Amino acid sequence: MAKAVAESPARPKVGELVEGKVIAIDKASLFVDLPPFGTGLIFGREFIVARDIIRKVHIGDSVAAKVVLAENEDGYVELSLKEAKQALIWGEVEEIVKEKRPLDLAVMEANKGGLILNWQGIQGFLPASQLASEHYPRVSDGSKERILEELKKLVGTRLVVTIIGATEDDGRLIFSEKAVGSRDKGAALEALTVGETVEGEVTGAVDFGVFVRVAEGLEGLVHISEMDWALVDDPRKRFKPGDRVKVKVIDVKDGKVSLSIKALKPNPWVEAGGKYKKGDIVKGVVIKYNKHGALASIEEGVAGLVHISEFDGEPDLRAKLELGRPYDFRITLFDAKEQRMTLSTKLEEVKKKEEAVVAKAE
């Protein structure tokens, strides 16, 4: 007898998962065959909280349950279906996190920080910072209201995400759309070479430039200064999402890609270097004001600064040099290599000063 007891399998411990076939269901109890341990019982509070699950269960079905009492006074193993389901779900969560397994989920809600998604009845949060580039709310002024407006556009859509964080105690999941494509991004980065020309698709335009997808899971930025040799006021007027563009890769650093469109166009300063010199009088069109004065273009892509010191303050400058109007200027500095030019409206005064310097040198 002692030998038989010693060789008999130990009864399942509290917290363990067991599996068996349903042998009976009544109004307040469910019985599960658990050979060789005997019979498992789900009743009372555990039956009530698992009603939604029990409605779908039939006699003969196999079910997984969690042990809440190894043996009660009647000899049954008391079980919990609800806790078993949660345990199985959280076990799967661990696998998803480890494998970065993709999940196709619908966006339920949006708030100023991100999106709310639901997986297996568990609500989770997708921070805006974890959105893929094509879904990221590109709001240049950082306005939370505008960010929320952009995020709300994603409600009802489906996103491919993975779980990057989970806390079973409070039942929270943290999702990431960005992490799904991280492996693809690494491979795409390795395949990219500085100096090469690639074709891509514009995914977004902001005040400081445009974003271009150059490979699956990888995009780069064309800064406003790299869009054209001529002045660009608003990138949104030049490009729209979906536009196809050719770009040159000018830098790949820390996972970020810098691109240029103007690098694929002839540099107008090269030709201008053989046409202009200091002292020349040229016709220029005022194209922009800044804190230093006014910019005037003498030809496409070649512009110089008229310094504010020539005027009695900004109002005087704006009154005397109107945007879009042509004026005569004298070139006071011209360096085609450095792409620098300064201009003056005081044609005769500058000429006399230059002649005086020459005469003194002689």
Main CATH class of the largest domain:
Mainly Beta
Widest sheet: strand ordering:
1-2-3-5-4
Strand content: 35-45%
Report the end-to-end length measured between terminal Cα atoms: 127 Å
CATH superfamily of the largest domain: Nucleic acid-binding proteins
Q: Counting H and I runs of at least 4 residues, what is the number of helices? A: 10
Shape: rod-shaped
What's the Cα radius of gyration? 36 Å
Number of self-contained structural domains = 4
Helix and strand element order: HEEEHHEEHEEEHEEHEEEHEEHEEEHEEH
- Do you know the CATH topology of the largest domain? OB fold (Dihydrolipoamide Acetyltransferase, E2P)
Structure explained in plain terms:
Strand 19 and strand 20 (340-344) form a beta hairpin. It contains ten helices and 20 strands. Strands 1-2-3-5-4 form a five-stranded mixed barrel. The chain has four domains: 11-87, Beta Barrel (OB fold (Dihydrolipoamide Acetyltransferase, E2P)); 100-181, Nucleic acid-binding proteins (OB fold (Dihydrolipoamide Acetyltransferase, E2P)); 192-264, Nucleic acid-binding proteins (OB fold (Dihydrolipoamide Acetyltransferase, E2P)), CATH 2.40.50; 269-361, Beta Barrel (OB fold (Dihydrolipoamide Acetyltransferase, E2P)). With 362 residues, it is an alpha+beta fold. The model is unreliable at 1-6 (pLDDT under 50). The termini are far apart.
How would you summarize the topology of this molecule?
Elements: H1 2-7, E1 17-25, E2 29-34, E3 38-43, H2 44-49, H3 51-54, E4 62-69, E5 77-80, H4 81-99, E6 103-111, E7 114-119, E8 122-127, H5 144-152, E9 158-167, E10 172-176, H6 182-191, E11 197-206, E12 209-215, E13 218-223, H7 235-238, E14 244-253, E15 256-260, H8 268-272, E16 281-290, E17 293-299, E18 302-307, H9 314-320, E19 326-335, E20 340-344, H10 347-361
Parallel strand pairs: 3-5, 8-10, 13-15, 18-20
Antiparallel strand pairs: 1-2, 1-4, 2-3, 4-5, 6-7, 6-9, 7-8, 9-10, 11-12, 11-14, 12-13, 14-15, 16-17, 16-19, 17-18, 19-20
